[in-house]
Design brief:
Blueprint: H1 2-24, H2 28-66, H3 71-120, H4 123-127, H5 131-138, H6 140-145, H7 152-172, H8 174-181, H9 183-221, H10 223-228, H11 232-284, H12 290-331, E1 344-346, E2 351-358, E3 367-374, E4 379-383, H13 390-398, E5 405-411, E6 415-418, H14 429-434, H15 441-450, H16 476-488, E7 494-498, H17 506-519, E8 524-528, H18 532-537, E9 540-545, E10 548-553, H19 555-561, H20 563-588
Helix pairs in contact: 2-3, 2-7, 2-12, 5-9, 7-8, 7-12, 9-11, 9-12, 11-12, 15-16, 19-20
Amino acid sequence: MGEDATEMSRGRLREAFVLVRALVRHHKRLFFTAVAGAAVFAACTVLSAVIVRLITDDVIAPRFNEGTVSKTRVSAVLGVLVVVGFVRAAGVVVRRTWAGRTSWRVTERITSQVVQRLAEQPVPWHRRQSTGDLITRAGVDAEAATAVLGPLPFATGVVVLVWLSSAWLVITDIPLGLAAVAVFPGLIFLNIGYQRRVDRYYNTAQAELGNLSAAVHESFDGVTVVKSFGAEGRETERLAQIARRLRDARLGAVRLRSTFEALLDGIPTVVNACLLVGGAFRVRDGQMTVGELTSFIYLFTLLVFPLRLIGFALSEVPHSLAGWNRIRALLDQPVAPDPARLLTHRADGAVELRDVHFSHDGERDVLCGIDATFEAGRTVAVVGATGAGKTTLLHLIAGLIEADSGTIAVPAAGTRLVFQEPFLLAASVYDNITLGKQADPAVLDVALAVAEADFLRDLPNGLETEIGERGVGLSGGQRQRLALARALACQPAVLLLDDTTSSLDPTTEAKVIANLRTALRSTTVVAVASRPSTIALADDVLFLEGGVVLAHGRHEELMQTVAAYRSLIEAFEHDRAELESGAAAGAVS
Protein backbone atom coordinates (compact mmCIF):
# COMPACT_ATOMS: atom_id res chain seq x y z
CA MET A 1 0.00 0.00 0.00
CA GLY A 2 2.87 2.34 0.89
CA GLU A 3 4.61 1.61 -2.43
CA ASP A 4 1.38 2.31 -4.31
CA ALA A 5 0.99 5.64 -2.53
CA THR A 6 4.61 6.56 -3.24
CA GLU A 7 4.27 5.67 -6.90
CA MET A 8 1.03 7.66 -7.10
CA SER A 9 2.76 10.66 -5.51
CA ARG A 10 5.61 10.42 -8.01
CA GLY A 11 3.10 10.21 -10.81
CA ARG A 12 1.35 13.35 -9.62
CA LEU A 13 4.68 15.16 -9.35
CA ARG A 14 5.50 14.15 -12.92
CA GLU A 15 2.09 15.37 -14.04
CA ALA A 16 2.65 18.65 -12.21
CA PHE A 17 6.04 19.08 -13.88
CA VAL A 18 4.58 18.33 -17.32
CA LEU A 19 1.74 20.79 -16.63
CA VAL A 20 4.08 23.62 -15.62
CA ARG A 21 6.39 22.97 -18.57
CA ALA A 22 3.46 22.94 -20.98
CA LEU A 23 2.10 26.20 -19.59
CA VAL A 24 5.41 28.05 -19.32
CA ARG A 25 6.57 27.22 -22.88
CA HIS A 26 3.96 29.65 -24.25
CA HIS A 27 5.61 32.68 -22.61
CA LYS A 28 9.00 31.69 -21.22
CA ARG A 29 10.43 35.21 -21.13
CA LEU A 30 7.54 36.60 -19.08
CA PHE A 31 7.66 33.71 -16.64
CA PHE A 32 11.39 33.77 -16.03
CA THR A 33 11.31 37.55 -15.60
CA ALA A 34 8.82 36.98 -12.78
CA VAL A 35 11.09 34.27 -11.33
CA ALA A 36 14.07 36.67 -11.49
CA GLY A 37 12.04 39.26 -9.58
CA ALA A 38 11.21 36.63 -6.95
CA ALA A 39 14.90 35.67 -6.66
CA VAL A 40 15.88 39.32 -6.12
CA PHE A 41 13.23 39.53 -3.41
CA ALA A 42 14.63 36.39 -1.75
CA ALA A 43 18.21 37.68 -1.77
CA CYS A 44 17.16 41.07 -0.39
CA THR A 45 15.12 39.39 2.36
CA VAL A 46 18.19 37.54 3.63
CA LEU A 47 20.29 40.68 3.23
CA SER A 48 17.78 42.67 5.27
CA ALA A 49 18.29 40.20 8.15
CA VAL A 50 22.03 40.89 7.96
CA ILE A 51 21.30 44.63 8.12
CA VAL A 52 19.04 44.11 11.15
CA ARG A 53 22.00 42.49 12.91
CA LEU A 54 24.24 45.45 11.99
CA ILE A 55 21.65 47.93 13.25
CA THR A 56 21.30 46.06 16.53
CA ASP A 57 25.01 45.37 17.20
CA ASP A 58 26.61 48.44 15.59
CA VAL A 59 24.03 51.17 16.19
CA ILE A 60 21.57 50.36 18.99
CA ALA A 61 23.93 48.42 21.32
CA PRO A 62 26.76 51.05 21.23
CA ARG A 63 24.22 53.80 21.89
CA PHE A 64 23.01 52.01 25.02
CA ASN A 65 26.40 50.74 26.18
CA GLU A 66 28.65 53.68 25.30
CA GLY A 67 26.11 56.51 25.11
CA THR A 68 27.17 57.56 21.63
CA VAL A 69 27.39 56.24 18.07
CA SER A 70 28.98 57.57 14.92
CA LYS A 71 26.60 59.48 12.65
CA THR A 72 28.51 58.21 9.66
CA ARG A 73 27.89 54.62 10.73
CA VAL A 74 24.18 55.30 11.31
CA SER A 75 23.84 56.98 7.92
CA ALA A 76 25.69 54.17 6.17
CA VAL A 77 23.68 51.37 7.78
CA LEU A 78 20.34 53.11 7.27
CA GLY A 79 21.31 54.02 3.69
CA VAL A 80 22.05 50.39 2.88
CA LEU A 81 18.74 49.39 4.53
CA VAL A 82 16.81 51.87 2.37
CA VAL A 83 18.55 50.73 -0.82
CA VAL A 84 17.89 47.07 -0.02
CA GLY A 85 14.28 47.94 0.76
CA PHE A 86 13.82 49.66 -2.60
CA VAL A 87 15.46 46.79 -4.48
CA ARG A 88 13.30 44.30 -2.57
CA ALA A 89 10.17 46.30 -3.42
CA ALA A 90 11.23 46.40 -7.08
CA GLY A 91 11.60 42.61 -7.00
CA VAL A 92 8.04 42.32 -5.67
CA VAL A 93 6.68 44.62 -8.39
CA VAL A 94 8.50 42.72 -11.14
CA ARG A 95 7.39 39.35 -9.76
CA ARG A 96 3.73 40.28 -9.41
CA THR A 97 3.47 42.19 -12.67
CA TRP A 98 5.16 39.58 -14.84
CA ALA A 99 3.50 36.65 -13.04
CA GLY A 100 0.12 38.25 -13.72
CA ARG A 101 1.01 38.89 -17.35
CA THR A 102 2.19 35.30 -17.72
CA SER A 103 -1.02 33.92 -16.27
CA TRP A 104 -3.25 36.14 -18.41
CA ARG A 105 -1.34 35.49 -21.62
CA VAL A 106 -1.22 31.72 -21.12
CA THR A 107 -4.93 31.64 -20.27
CA GLU A 108 -5.64 33.59 -23.42
CA ARG A 109 -3.49 31.23 -25.49
CA ILE A 110 -5.12 28.08 -24.09
CA THR A 111 -8.61 29.51 -24.49
CA SER A 112 -7.81 30.39 -28.10
CA GLN A 113 -6.58 26.85 -28.71
CA VAL A 114 -9.78 25.39 -27.28
CA VAL A 115 -11.99 27.75 -29.29
CA GLN A 116 -9.95 27.02 -32.43
CA ARG A 117 -10.35 23.27 -31.93
CA LEU A 118 -14.09 23.69 -31.36
CA ALA A 119 -14.32 25.71 -34.57
CA GLU A 120 -12.42 23.01 -36.48
CA GLN A 121 -14.78 20.24 -35.40
CA PRO A 122 -17.73 19.70 -37.77
CA VAL A 123 -21.39 19.86 -36.83
CA PRO A 124 -21.86 16.08 -36.28
CA TRP A 125 -19.11 16.15 -33.65
CA HIS A 126 -20.77 19.06 -31.85
CA ARG A 127 -24.10 17.26 -31.85
CA ARG A 128 -22.52 14.46 -29.82
CA GLN A 129 -21.19 16.90 -27.21
CA SER A 130 -22.79 18.84 -24.40
CA THR A 131 -22.70 22.55 -25.22
CA GLY A 132 -22.47 23.52 -21.56
CA ASP A 133 -19.50 21.21 -21.02
CA LEU A 134 -17.67 22.68 -24.03
CA ILE A 135 -18.27 26.19 -22.71
CA THR A 136 -16.85 25.12 -19.34
CA ARG A 137 -13.68 23.78 -20.96
CA ALA A 138 -13.13 27.00 -22.87
CA GLY A 139 -13.71 29.16 -19.78
CA VAL A 140 -13.59 27.69 -16.29
CA ASP A 141 -11.18 24.86 -17.15
CA ALA A 142 -8.76 27.20 -18.93
CA GLU A 143 -8.68 29.49 -15.88
CA ALA A 144 -8.27 26.52 -13.55
CA ALA A 145 -5.40 25.10 -15.62
CA THR A 146 -3.41 28.33 -15.34
CA ALA A 147 -4.23 29.04 -11.68
CA VAL A 148 -0.88 27.55 -10.62
CA LEU A 149 1.04 30.15 -12.65
CA GLY A 150 0.11 33.01 -10.31
CA PRO A 151 1.90 31.79 -7.15
CA LEU A 152 4.52 29.71 -8.97
CA PRO A 153 7.20 32.44 -9.47
CA PHE A 154 6.92 33.43 -5.80
CA ALA A 155 7.11 29.77 -4.77
CA THR A 156 10.22 29.41 -6.93
CA GLY A 157 11.70 32.46 -5.21
CA VAL A 158 10.81 30.96 -1.85
CA VAL A 159 12.91 27.91 -2.69
CA VAL A 160 15.85 30.26 -3.25
CA LEU A 161 14.95 32.06 -0.04
CA VAL A 162 14.88 28.82 1.95
CA TRP A 163 18.33 27.77 0.69
CA LEU A 164 19.91 31.17 1.35
CA SER A 165 18.20 31.47 4.73
CA SER A 166 19.20 27.97 5.76
CA ALA A 167 22.83 28.70 4.96
CA TRP A 168 22.74 32.03 6.81
CA LEU A 169 20.92 30.62 9.86
CA VAL A 170 23.40 27.76 10.24
CA ILE A 171 26.36 30.11 9.77
CA THR A 172 24.93 32.49 12.39
CA ASP A 173 24.42 29.77 15.03
CA ILE A 174 24.81 26.09 14.26
CA PRO A 175 22.49 24.60 16.98
CA LEU A 176 19.65 27.10 16.47
CA GLY A 177 20.19 27.09 12.71
CA LEU A 178 19.89 23.33 12.47
CA ALA A 179 16.76 23.43 14.66
CA ALA A 180 15.19 26.05 12.39
CA VAL A 181 16.20 24.34 9.17
CA ALA A 182 14.78 21.02 10.43
CA VAL A 183 11.30 22.60 10.26
CA PHE A 184 11.45 23.15 6.50
CA PRO A 185 11.36 19.46 5.42
CA GLY A 186 8.40 18.92 7.77
CA LEU A 187 6.49 21.76 6.15
CA ILE A 188 7.32 20.44 2.68
CA PHE A 189 6.04 16.95 3.58
CA LEU A 190 2.94 18.59 5.04
CA ASN A 191 2.35 20.29 1.68
CA ILE A 192 2.87 17.08 -0.28
CA GLY A 193 0.50 15.17 2.00
CA TYR A 194 -2.12 17.86 1.58
CA GLN A 195 -1.75 17.80 -2.21
CA ARG A 196 -2.15 14.02 -2.31
CA ARG A 197 -5.37 14.09 -0.27
CA VAL A 198 -7.00 17.09 -1.90
CA ASP A 199 -6.56 15.79 -5.47
CA ARG A 200 -9.75 13.75 -5.55
CA TYR A 201 -11.85 16.65 -4.27
CA TYR A 202 -10.63 19.01 -6.97
CA ASN A 203 -11.04 16.43 -9.73
CA THR A 204 -14.58 15.68 -8.61
CA ALA A 205 -15.46 19.36 -8.25
CA GLN A 206 -14.12 20.21 -11.73
CA ALA A 207 -16.04 17.34 -13.33
CA GLU A 208 -19.26 18.23 -11.51
CA LEU A 209 -18.85 21.87 -12.50
CA GLY A 210 -18.81 20.78 -16.14
CA ASN A 211 -21.88 18.58 -15.55
CA LEU A 212 -23.72 21.46 -13.87
CA SER A 213 -22.90 23.85 -16.69
CA ALA A 214 -24.09 21.33 -19.26
CA ALA A 215 -27.31 20.61 -17.36
CA VAL A 216 -28.12 24.30 -16.88
CA HIS A 217 -27.49 24.98 -20.56
CA GLU A 218 -29.74 22.08 -21.58
CA SER A 219 -32.46 23.21 -19.19
CA PHE A 220 -32.27 26.77 -20.47
CA ASP A 221 -32.48 25.73 -24.11
CA GLY A 222 -35.32 23.29 -23.42
CA VAL A 223 -37.31 25.48 -21.04
CA THR A 224 -40.37 25.38 -23.30
CA VAL A 225 -40.38 21.59 -23.43
CA VAL A 226 -39.85 21.36 -19.66
CA LYS A 227 -42.83 23.62 -18.99
CA SER A 228 -45.02 21.89 -21.59
CA PHE A 229 -44.57 18.50 -19.86
CA GLY A 230 -44.78 19.95 -16.35
CA ALA A 231 -41.30 18.67 -15.56
CA GLU A 232 -40.10 21.71 -13.61
CA GLY A 233 -39.84 19.77 -10.36
CA ARG A 234 -37.94 16.88 -11.90
CA GLU A 235 -35.55 19.24 -13.69
CA THR A 236 -35.00 21.22 -10.49
CA GLU A 237 -34.17 18.03 -8.59
CA ARG A 238 -31.75 16.93 -11.33
CA LEU A 239 -29.87 20.21 -11.09
CA ALA A 240 -30.01 20.08 -7.29
CA GLN A 241 -28.38 16.65 -7.21
CA ILE A 242 -25.47 17.84 -9.37
CA ALA A 243 -25.16 20.99 -7.26
CA ARG A 244 -25.07 18.89 -4.07
CA ARG A 245 -22.25 16.73 -5.43
CA LEU A 246 -20.34 19.86 -6.43
CA ARG A 247 -20.95 21.38 -2.99
CA ASP A 248 -19.80 18.23 -1.18
CA ALA A 249 -16.59 18.07 -3.23
CA ARG A 250 -15.77 21.72 -2.60
CA LEU A 251 -16.63 21.50 1.10
CA GLY A 252 -14.31 18.49 1.40
CA ALA A 253 -11.52 20.52 -0.21
CA VAL A 254 -12.22 23.50 2.06
CA ARG A 255 -12.19 21.37 5.22
CA LEU A 256 -8.89 19.78 4.24
CA ARG A 257 -7.41 23.13 3.29
CA SER A 258 -8.45 24.75 6.59
CA THR A 259 -6.68 21.98 8.54
CA PHE A 260 -3.63 22.31 6.32
CA GLU A 261 -3.43 26.10 6.74
CA ALA A 262 -3.91 25.84 10.51
CA LEU A 263 -0.92 23.50 10.72
CA LEU A 264 1.06 25.69 8.36
CA ASP A 265 0.42 28.64 10.69
CA GLY A 266 0.79 26.81 13.97
CA ILE A 267 4.00 24.84 13.45
CA PRO A 268 6.26 27.83 12.56
CA THR A 269 4.74 29.89 15.41
CA VAL A 270 5.56 27.22 18.00
CA VAL A 271 9.05 26.74 16.56
CA ASN A 272 9.60 30.51 16.59
CA ALA A 273 8.76 30.66 20.28
CA CYS A 274 11.16 27.79 21.00
CA LEU A 275 13.91 29.50 19.01
CA LEU A 276 13.39 32.68 21.00
CA VAL A 277 13.76 30.84 24.30
CA GLY A 278 16.78 28.87 23.08
CA GLY A 279 18.34 32.00 21.65
CA ALA A 280 17.98 33.83 24.95
CA PHE A 281 20.06 31.13 26.64
CA ARG A 282 22.65 31.33 23.83
CA VAL A 283 22.93 35.11 24.29
CA ARG A 284 23.26 34.69 28.08
CA ASP A 285 26.08 32.19 27.57
CA GLY A 286 27.82 34.52 25.11
CA GLN A 287 27.42 32.14 22.18
CA MET A 288 25.68 34.78 20.04
CA THR A 289 25.00 38.50 20.18
CA VAL A 290 21.67 40.23 20.62
CA GLY A 291 21.90 41.43 17.05
CA GLU A 292 22.42 37.91 15.77
CA LEU A 293 19.43 36.62 17.75
CA THR A 294 17.28 39.54 16.56
CA SER A 295 18.18 38.98 12.90
CA PHE A 296 17.74 35.22 13.40
CA ILE A 297 14.18 35.58 14.73
CA TYR A 298 13.44 38.33 12.20
CA LEU A 299 14.46 36.13 9.27
CA PHE A 300 12.62 33.04 10.53
CA THR A 301 9.48 35.16 11.04
CA LEU A 302 9.78 36.50 7.50
CA LEU A 303 9.96 32.93 6.19
CA VAL A 304 6.56 31.95 7.59
CA PHE A 305 4.48 33.79 4.99
CA PRO A 306 6.62 32.81 1.96
CA LEU A 307 6.40 29.18 3.07
CA ARG A 308 2.63 29.56 2.92
CA LEU A 309 3.09 30.52 -0.73
CA ILE A 310 4.74 27.17 -1.42
CA GLY A 311 1.69 25.54 0.12
CA PHE A 312 -0.59 27.79 -1.91
CA ALA A 313 1.23 26.90 -5.13
CA LEU A 314 1.08 23.19 -4.31
CA SER A 315 -2.59 23.47 -3.35
CA GLU A 316 -3.33 24.97 -6.78
CA VAL A 317 -1.61 22.06 -8.56
CA PRO A 318 -4.52 19.57 -8.18
CA HIS A 319 -6.98 22.26 -9.28
CA SER A 320 -4.86 23.14 -12.30
CA LEU A 321 -4.26 19.48 -13.17
CA ALA A 322 -8.01 18.83 -13.12
CA GLY A 323 -8.65 21.72 -15.52
CA TRP A 324 -5.64 20.86 -17.70
CA ASN A 325 -6.60 17.19 -18.05
CA ARG A 326 -10.09 18.16 -19.22
CA ILE A 327 -8.62 20.59 -21.74
CA ARG A 328 -6.11 18.04 -23.02
CA ALA A 329 -8.90 15.48 -23.38
CA LEU A 330 -10.56 17.94 -25.75
CA LEU A 331 -7.47 19.11 -27.63
CA ASP A 332 -6.14 15.57 -28.08
CA GLN A 333 -9.27 14.48 -29.90
CA PRO A 334 -8.59 14.36 -33.66
CA VAL A 335 -10.64 16.62 -35.88
CA ALA A 336 -13.60 14.59 -37.11
CA PRO A 337 -14.15 14.26 -40.86
CA ASP A 338 -16.10 17.19 -42.30
CA PRO A 339 -19.27 16.05 -44.13
CA ALA A 340 -18.75 18.88 -46.63
CA ARG A 341 -15.77 16.97 -48.08
CA LEU A 342 -18.20 14.53 -49.71
CA LEU A 343 -20.04 17.23 -51.67
CA THR A 344 -19.18 17.38 -55.33
CA HIS A 345 -19.16 20.62 -57.31
CA ARG A 346 -21.09 21.70 -60.36
CA ALA A 347 -20.00 24.51 -62.64
CA ASP A 348 -23.51 25.54 -63.72
CA GLY A 349 -24.65 26.71 -60.25
CA ALA A 350 -27.35 24.06 -59.87
CA VAL A 351 -27.95 21.72 -56.91
CA GLU A 352 -28.37 18.01 -57.62
CA LEU A 353 -29.24 15.10 -55.30
CA ARG A 354 -29.09 11.51 -56.51
CA ASP A 355 -30.43 8.55 -54.51
CA VAL A 356 -29.68 10.27 -51.18
CA HIS A 357 -30.42 8.30 -48.01
CA PHE A 358 -30.01 9.53 -44.45
CA SER A 359 -30.89 8.21 -40.99
CA HIS A 360 -30.07 9.57 -37.54
CA ASP A 361 -29.89 6.20 -35.80
CA GLY A 362 -28.71 4.02 -38.68
CA GLU A 363 -32.02 2.12 -38.71
CA ARG A 364 -34.94 4.33 -39.74
CA ASP A 365 -34.43 6.46 -42.86
CA VAL A 366 -35.32 10.13 -42.53
CA LEU A 367 -34.74 10.61 -46.25
CA CYS A 368 -35.18 7.71 -48.67
CA GLY A 369 -33.70 7.82 -52.13
CA ILE A 370 -34.04 11.56 -52.76
CA ASP A 371 -33.64 12.52 -56.43
CA ALA A 372 -33.96 16.21 -57.25
CA THR A 373 -32.31 18.95 -59.26
CA PHE A 374 -32.65 22.65 -58.46
CA GLU A 375 -31.62 24.76 -61.44
CA ALA A 376 -29.39 27.79 -60.95
CA GLY A 377 -31.20 31.01 -60.13
CA ARG A 378 -34.47 29.28 -59.20
CA THR A 379 -36.40 29.68 -55.95
CA VAL A 380 -37.53 26.30 -54.66
CA ALA A 381 -39.95 25.81 -51.77
CA VAL A 382 -39.51 22.59 -49.79
CA VAL A 383 -42.91 21.62 -48.40
CA GLY A 384 -44.00 18.77 -46.15
CA ALA A 385 -45.60 17.89 -42.84
CA THR A 386 -43.64 17.88 -39.60
CA GLY A 387 -41.01 15.13 -39.70
CA ALA A 388 -40.98 14.88 -43.49
CA GLY A 389 -37.21 15.55 -43.59
CA LYS A 390 -37.21 19.16 -44.82
CA THR A 391 -34.59 20.53 -42.40
CA THR A 392 -32.45 17.40 -42.81
CA LEU A 393 -32.46 17.96 -46.59
CA LEU A 394 -31.13 21.51 -46.15
CA HIS A 395 -28.45 20.32 -43.71
CA LEU A 396 -27.28 17.75 -46.26
CA ILE A 397 -27.04 20.35 -49.03
CA ALA A 398 -25.16 22.70 -46.68
CA GLY A 399 -22.66 19.94 -45.86
CA LEU A 400 -23.43 20.00 -42.13
CA ILE A 401 -24.25 16.30 -41.98
CA GLU A 402 -23.16 13.31 -44.04
CA ALA A 403 -25.52 11.25 -46.16
CA ASP A 404 -25.57 7.50 -45.62
CA SER A 405 -25.47 6.99 -49.37
CA GLY A 406 -26.01 8.87 -52.59
CA THR A 407 -24.36 11.96 -54.05
CA ILE A 408 -24.96 15.67 -53.60
CA ALA A 409 -23.55 18.27 -56.01
CA VAL A 410 -23.50 22.01 -55.25
CA PRO A 411 -21.83 25.07 -56.83
CA ALA A 412 -18.16 25.54 -55.94
CA ALA A 413 -18.92 29.08 -54.74
CA GLY A 414 -20.55 27.58 -51.66
CA THR A 415 -23.82 27.59 -49.75
CA ARG A 416 -25.20 29.55 -46.78
CA LEU A 417 -27.88 28.28 -44.42
CA VAL A 418 -30.15 30.55 -42.37
CA PHE A 419 -31.90 28.81 -39.47
CA GLN A 420 -35.41 29.41 -38.22
CA GLU A 421 -33.99 30.43 -34.84
CA PRO A 422 -30.87 32.41 -35.73
CA PHE A 423 -28.01 32.67 -33.26
CA LEU A 424 -26.85 36.23 -32.71
CA LEU A 425 -23.82 37.38 -30.77
CA ALA A 426 -23.79 39.87 -27.90
CA ALA A 427 -22.06 42.37 -30.20
CA SER A 428 -22.90 45.15 -32.63
CA VAL A 429 -25.23 44.72 -35.59
CA TYR A 430 -22.25 45.19 -37.92
CA ASP A 431 -20.22 42.46 -36.21
CA ASN A 432 -23.19 40.09 -36.35
CA ILE A 433 -23.47 40.63 -40.10
CA THR A 434 -19.78 40.51 -41.00
CA LEU A 435 -18.59 38.14 -38.23
CA GLY A 436 -15.38 40.11 -37.77
CA LYS A 437 -14.58 40.55 -41.46
CA GLN A 438 -14.50 43.75 -43.48
CA ALA A 439 -17.55 43.98 -45.72
CA ASP A 440 -17.84 45.80 -49.03
CA PRO A 441 -20.26 48.72 -48.29
CA ALA A 442 -22.06 48.14 -51.58
CA VAL A 443 -22.55 44.43 -50.84
CA LEU A 444 -23.71 45.29 -47.31
CA ASP A 445 -26.26 47.77 -48.65
CA VAL A 446 -27.67 45.15 -51.03
CA ALA A 447 -27.84 42.52 -48.27
CA LEU A 448 -29.76 44.84 -45.94
CA ALA A 449 -32.13 45.94 -48.71
CA VAL A 450 -32.91 42.40 -49.91
CA ALA A 451 -33.52 41.21 -46.34
CA GLU A 452 -35.76 44.22 -45.65
CA ALA A 453 -33.37 44.99 -42.80
CA ASP A 454 -32.71 48.69 -43.38
CA PHE A 455 -34.45 49.29 -40.05
CA LEU A 456 -31.12 48.31 -38.47
CA ARG A 457 -29.66 51.64 -39.60
CA ASP A 458 -32.36 53.44 -37.61
CA LEU A 459 -31.30 51.88 -34.29
CA PRO A 460 -29.79 54.32 -31.71
CA ASN A 461 -26.20 53.79 -32.91
CA GLY A 462 -27.00 52.48 -36.35
CA LEU A 463 -25.08 49.35 -37.33
CA GLU A 464 -22.82 49.85 -34.29
CA THR A 465 -25.74 49.26 -31.89
CA GLU A 466 -25.12 46.46 -29.38
CA ILE A 467 -28.05 44.03 -29.57
CA GLY A 468 -27.47 41.97 -26.41
CA GLU A 469 -27.04 38.24 -25.84
CA ARG A 470 -28.69 36.28 -28.68
CA GLY A 471 -30.14 39.53 -30.01
CA VAL A 472 -32.42 40.04 -27.03
CA GLY A 473 -32.91 43.68 -28.07
CA LEU A 474 -34.63 42.66 -31.30
CA SER A 475 -37.95 40.99 -32.10
CA GLY A 476 -38.14 37.53 -33.66
CA GLY A 477 -38.75 38.89 -37.15
CA GLN A 478 -35.94 41.43 -36.80
CA ARG A 479 -33.51 38.69 -35.74
CA GLN A 480 -34.50 36.61 -38.75
CA ARG A 481 -33.93 39.50 -41.15
CA LEU A 482 -30.55 40.28 -39.57
CA ALA A 483 -29.51 36.63 -39.96
CA LEU A 484 -30.67 36.67 -43.58
CA ALA A 485 -28.62 39.81 -44.23
CA ARG A 486 -25.60 38.04 -42.72
CA ALA A 487 -25.97 35.16 -45.19
CA LEU A 488 -26.53 37.51 -48.15
CA ALA A 489 -23.41 39.52 -47.30
CA CYS A 490 -21.39 36.39 -48.18
CA GLN A 491 -22.86 36.41 -51.72
CA PRO A 492 -23.57 32.66 -51.72
CA ALA A 493 -24.26 30.64 -54.83
CA VAL A 494 -26.94 28.70 -52.92
CA LEU A 495 -29.07 30.24 -50.17
CA LEU A 496 -30.82 27.78 -47.86
CA LEU A 497 -33.68 29.11 -45.73
CA ASP A 498 -35.00 26.85 -42.96
CA ASP A 499 -38.38 28.51 -42.41
CA THR A 500 -36.34 31.69 -42.00
CA THR A 501 -39.25 34.08 -42.63
CA SER A 502 -41.72 32.35 -40.29
CA SER A 503 -41.72 35.26 -37.79
CA LEU A 504 -42.35 37.90 -40.45
CA ASP A 505 -45.78 39.26 -41.26
CA PRO A 506 -47.14 38.13 -44.67
CA THR A 507 -46.47 41.50 -46.33
CA THR A 508 -42.82 41.69 -45.23
CA GLU A 509 -42.29 38.03 -46.09
CA ALA A 510 -43.65 38.58 -49.60
CA LYS A 511 -41.29 41.55 -50.02
CA VAL A 512 -38.30 39.48 -48.91
CA ILE A 513 -39.13 36.62 -51.31
CA ALA A 514 -39.68 39.07 -54.15
CA ASN A 515 -36.36 40.80 -53.35
CA LEU A 516 -34.55 37.46 -53.41
CA ARG A 517 -35.94 36.62 -56.84
CA THR A 518 -35.19 40.09 -58.23
CA ALA A 519 -31.76 40.86 -56.72
CA LEU A 520 -30.31 37.34 -56.70
CA ARG A 521 -31.03 36.15 -60.21
CA SER A 522 -27.96 33.88 -60.28
CA THR A 523 -28.44 32.54 -56.72
CA THR A 524 -30.33 29.32 -56.13
CA VAL A 525 -32.72 29.71 -53.18
CA VAL A 526 -34.02 26.60 -51.42
CA ALA A 527 -36.53 27.52 -48.70
CA VAL A 528 -38.46 25.39 -46.23
CA ALA A 529 -41.89 27.05 -46.12
CA SER A 530 -45.25 26.48 -44.46
CA ARG A 531 -47.09 29.69 -45.35
CA PRO A 532 -49.21 29.18 -48.51
CA SER A 533 -48.59 32.74 -49.73
CA THR A 534 -44.85 32.18 -49.55
CA ILE A 535 -45.03 28.80 -51.27
CA ALA A 536 -47.02 30.35 -54.14
CA LEU A 537 -44.18 32.83 -54.80
CA ALA A 538 -41.60 30.06 -55.43
CA ASP A 539 -40.63 28.96 -58.93
CA ASP A 540 -40.81 25.28 -57.97
CA VAL A 541 -42.06 23.19 -55.06
CA LEU A 542 -40.43 20.00 -53.76
CA PHE A 543 -43.08 18.06 -51.85
CA LEU A 544 -41.78 15.61 -49.25
CA GLU A 545 -43.76 13.02 -47.34
CA GLY A 546 -42.14 10.49 -45.02
CA GLY A 547 -38.69 11.27 -46.39
CA VAL A 548 -39.71 10.59 -49.99
CA VAL A 549 -40.20 13.07 -52.86
CA LEU A 550 -43.87 12.74 -53.81
CA ALA A 551 -43.86 15.58 -56.31
CA HIS A 552 -41.65 18.29 -57.80
CA GLY A 553 -43.19 21.06 -59.91
CA ARG A 554 -45.03 24.37 -59.84
CA HIS A 555 -47.38 25.15 -56.97
CA GLU A 556 -50.44 25.48 -59.21
CA GLU A 557 -49.77 22.15 -60.91
CA LEU A 558 -49.30 20.29 -57.60
CA MET A 559 -52.51 21.78 -56.22
CA GLN A 560 -54.41 20.28 -59.17
CA THR A 561 -52.66 16.94 -59.53
CA VAL A 562 -51.44 15.87 -56.05
CA ALA A 563 -54.25 15.36 -53.51
CA ALA A 564 -51.91 14.96 -50.53
CA TYR A 565 -50.21 18.26 -51.39
CA ARG A 566 -53.56 20.05 -51.75
CA SER A 567 -54.70 18.70 -48.36
CA LEU A 568 -51.52 19.86 -46.68
CA ILE A 569 -51.78 23.40 -48.13
CA GLU A 570 -55.43 23.59 -47.03
CA ALA A 571 -54.37 22.51 -43.56
CA PHE A 572 -51.70 25.23 -43.55
CA GLU A 573 -54.32 27.82 -44.53
CA HIS A 574 -56.71 26.60 -41.85
CA ASP A 575 -54.04 26.70 -39.13
CA ARG A 576 -52.95 30.18 -40.26
CA ALA A 577 -56.53 31.46 -40.16
CA GLU A 578 -57.08 30.09 -36.66
CA LEU A 579 -53.81 31.60 -35.46
CA GLU A 580 -54.66 35.03 -36.87
CA SER A 581 -58.21 34.97 -35.46
CA GLY A 582 -56.84 33.97 -32.05
CA ALA A 583 -54.33 36.83 -32.16
CA ALA A 584 -57.09 39.27 -33.13
CA ALA A 585 -59.31 38.06 -30.27
CA GLY A 586 -56.43 38.48 -27.83
CA ALA A 587 -55.81 42.03 -29.06
CA VAL A 588 -59.49 42.96 -28.59
CA SER A 589 -59.65 41.52 -25.07
